[in-house]
Specification:
Blueprint (H helix, E strand, L loop, with lengths): L7 E7 L4 E8 L2 E6 L13 H11 L17 H11 L9 H7 L8 H12 L21 H10 L3
Antiparallel strand pairs: 1-2, 2-3
Length: about 160
């Protein structure tokens, strides 16, 4: 994806999700993805990442977001989990235990590590771009209705 340096808030209404998709971007990176029912007043409608998200929501082809730069401002241990989530392919899913096994230094038999995985999913700043909806028994940072529609889109 082209380098996008426009900082700001961008939002567009999705009829599929029945709400807006809103992104915050700065320095060519996405900081946040959210799904408000009403966007921020200053939100603009045009941004290349929104275009990419709406191609995904159209469901006409498998879209990944590997080319979208994300500014992950989360603790290092959560970052490791979210980087693993980002690598889960379109149309596939894992459970929390498998995600813990996939993440270096975590043990799926350690309750503290499972809590860390669940916390990272719940606090994911960029759902869709980091597809936490592909973790079947974990929380998602997206609203439940959005999470279910994303799973349906990918036939999970």
């Amino acid at each position: 994806m082209e380098d996008v340096t426009d900082a700001g808030i961008y939002a567009r209404e999705s009829s599929y999700l029945d709400r807006y998709v809103q992104i915050g971007a700065a320095s060519g990176r996405v900081l946040r993805v959210s799904f408000p029912t009403i966007p921020e007043d200053e939100a603009e409608a045009e941004h290349p990442v929104l275009e990419h998200i709406f191609e995904y929501l159209d469901g006409l082809e498998e879209i990944d977001f590997d080319d979208v730069q994300i500014a992950l401002t989360v603790p290092t241990d959560q970052r490791a989990v979210l980087e693993q989530v980002r690598g889960i392919p379109y149309g596939e899913q894992v459970d929390v235990d498998a995600l813990a096994r996939m993440t270096s230094g975590l043990d799926p038999d350690d309750e503290d590590d499972i809590i860390l995985v669940r916390t990272a999913l719940e606090e994911n700043p960029t759902p869709i771009l980091i597809p936490d909806h592909r973790v079947r028994d974990g929380p998602s940072a997206a609203p439940p209705a959005v999470e279910q529609k994303l799973r349906s889109l990918e036939e999970l």
